[in-house]
Fold this sequence. Notes:
Blueprint (H helix, E strand, L loop, with lengths): L1 H23 L7 E8 L6 H20 L7 E8 L4 H14 L4 E5 L2 H14 L3 E3 L15 E4 L3 H15 L4 E7 L2 H16 L3 E8 L7 H10 L3 E5 L3 H12 L6 E3 L6 H7 L6 E5 L10 H10 L2 H4 L4 H19 L6 H8 L21 E2 L4 E6 L4 E4 L2
Parallel strand pairs: 1-2, 1-3, 4-5, 5-11, 6-7, 6-8, 8-9, 9-10
Antiparallel strand pairs: 10-12, 12-13
InterPro entries: Leu-bd, Peripla_BP_I
Keywords: Signal
Protein name: Leucine-binding protein domain-containing protein
Amino acid sequence: xxxxxxxxxxxxxxxxxxxxxxxxxxxxxxxxxxxxxxxxxxxxxxxxxxxxxxxxxxxxxxxxxxxxxxxxxxxxxxxxxxxxxxxxxxxxxxxxxxxxxxxxxxxxxxxxxxxxxxxxxxxxxxxxxxxxxxxxxxxxxxxxxxxxxxxxxxxxxxxxxxxxxxxxxxxxxxxxxxxxxxxxxxxxxxxxxxxxxxxxxxxxxxxxxxxxxxxxxxxxxxxxxxxxxxxxxxxxxxxxxxxxxxxxxxxxxxxxxxxxxxxxxxxxxxxxxxxxxxxxxxxxxxxxxxxxxxxxxxxxxxxxxxxxxxxxxxxxxxxxxxxxxxxxxxxxxxxxxxxxxxxxxxxxxxxxxxxxxxxxxxxxxxxxxxxxxxxxxxxxxxxxx
Length: 385
């Protein structure tokens, strides 16, 4: 009898501990888990933010249709920061302190996440970063922050390396932005230039927010450059390629994967015929992406699907990584357990991008890159043959 009572007492204590952990953990109840999203849903960067949010919505709808995470349904609260750091801080504070979320599915762009990082770190809540992968997110590793993507320096290094192999013995030019993003572009480019002994005939830096590149592109032509690394974000690269076409100097152009959205290929038009990028996100038309495309068809409206792009893929993939870690924590879900499980993820297949993985020392998932070429006629990109 004593042994039965002891076993009963142990069982009750274990149940109480599980209930206590759930009760104490912010954003978790017996039936629900609250998640937060902070990203640009207004202004020009909304092209990225809205698409990302749609990918997260697909992941949430899919999980809820399957019964939630270990029996708890998921609820997403989204904040629009307009890509303004001060608004990011306000939104993050609201999500953490007022909405009492359990985890972030996105922490917006580079300057925005930098501005709010002290609050995010102090909260200890799991935070996924699939829109920006600036070094401050993972060097050194932050216990609760996980970047899903590719270091921009390494991405540019990979892009220029592949283009240099494809177009050997060409004279090169680089145009980059006067901020950390531009510095990463220059670093990646310059490493390839040194290793492959590229002949760089023009190197220019433009001011963030600049919209007229006639002077810079004229200098590219006058320098005799036969290939260009265009280090803008999105609109700047479109303007540069169109200006090259306007002055009759159509040369191979490399752009960062940030530009790999259908709107970019469409707006470049015929000027984009020799535009290249690298990416780790599957092409919408590829066999690998069919499963995710079917999920978007199932869980999004026709209007929403029209606003989806590569950032819908990364939003879904990062959220699936978060959910996988949460699932492994069982009913006694905590932020600490989720952070620890995220740090153990290995080669996670999401069907949206090449496999995701982290370690305790490395919180940057650096998926495999592949070379893409713009296809203006189809308003998209395709694998470079």
